[in-house]
Design goal:
The protein has 53 residues and is mainly alpha-helical. The protein contains 1 helix and no strands.
């Protein structure tokens, strides 16, 4: 006795999982992106706001 889905069931096609090398390059790219963002913010210099007493 096997189960057969009714006619209104939609089969979902999932893409294959990413391999180890693809995961490495994605993490490397995101790390570089974060470093470039940080370096860009450092180049702006400090901003000091004086609050009233």
């Amino acid at each position: 006795m096997s189960w057969t889905p009714p006619g209104d069931v939609v089969s979902v096609q999932r893409p294959p999982k990413a391999g180890a090398s693809r995961s490495f390059w994605r993490a490397f790219r995101e790390t570089l992106r974060g470093l470039f963002t940080t370096a860009g913010r450092l180049a702006e210099g400090p901003i000091t706001v004086q609050y009233p007493e």
